[in-house]
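step=encode ok
step=design start
structure_in=
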């Protein structure tokens, strides 16, 4: 039904990392047809080998995207396991459309041929990617809530975070952090004046995830301290002027 050049163009788009759904929409071809061509014409593209499942396990080729996605997962992500595939979900507030786009882009870069969708919920969207390999790439997955279980990075993950620390910090802040403006008052020459200053907050119940965040801040030269929320030290604060300026240079507010 379709000429050879049409099939070749569709497969070329898939090789570039495009999802089957996006290629289908762009070219006006059914997803089923493209899937059939992958099976018959390019079986090597049908089910790309997972870098962690290979005989000699390696790291994702787009390490920067992986570092960012790992930060998003540790903050607002989870994996749902089913018999034949796993769903990686990152929940993003509607207030930050740029974050929603960035989460989807990171998923596509880490596993280019995995299907990615968005699901609207009240006040937020679930960005989902479907693949049998997400638990290979995110071994922190497990039963229960993340703050109730041990969270440690494997050596290959730590190597990626060490190589791309700002992407990891950015992912954590985009999920469970914010940049806000604090204020205080001082008496100057007998008059009380108001002063405003920016600061970054990261809030997470998991002591392990807070530790990973703080250790990465140390590596990039950002000064931080913990602050309390009630009786719990859930917050990591960056408020010193030089450190905030460094964070602004690499992170900035959500968008």
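sequence_out=
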């Amino acid at each position: 039904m379709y000429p050879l050049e049409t099939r070749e163009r569709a497969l070329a788009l898939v090789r570039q990392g495009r999802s089957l759904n996006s290629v289908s929409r762009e070219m006006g071809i059914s997803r089923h047809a493209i899937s059939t061509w992958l099976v018959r014409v390019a079986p090597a593209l049908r089910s790309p080998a997972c870098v962690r499942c290979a005989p000699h396990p390696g790291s994702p080729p787009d390490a920067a995207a992986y570092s960012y996605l790992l930060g998003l997962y540790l903050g607002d992500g989870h994996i749902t396991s089913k018999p034949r595939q796993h769903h990686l979900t990152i929940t993003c507030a509607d207030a930050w459309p740029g974050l929603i786009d960035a989460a989807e882009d990171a998923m596509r870069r880490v596993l280019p041929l995995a299907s990615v969708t968005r699901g609207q919920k009240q006040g937020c969207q679930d960005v989902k990617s479907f693949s049998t390999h997400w638990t290979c790439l995110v071994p922190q997955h497990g039963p229960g809530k993340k703050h109730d279980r041990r969270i440690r990075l494997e050596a290959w993950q730590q190597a990626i975070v060490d190589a791309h620390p700002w992407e990891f910090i950015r992912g954590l802040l985009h999920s469970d952090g914010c940049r806000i403006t604090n204020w205080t008052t001082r008496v100057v020459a007998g008059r009380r004046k108001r002063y405003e200053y920016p600061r970054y907050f990261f809030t997470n119940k998991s002591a392990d995830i807070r530790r990973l965040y703080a250790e990465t801040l140390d590596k990039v030269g950002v000064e931080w301290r913990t602050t309390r929320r009630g009786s719990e030290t859930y917050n990591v604060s960056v408020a010193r002027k030089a450190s905030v300026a460094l964070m602004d240079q690499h992170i900035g507010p959500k968008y």
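step=design ok
step=annotate ok -> The radius of gyration is 21 Å.
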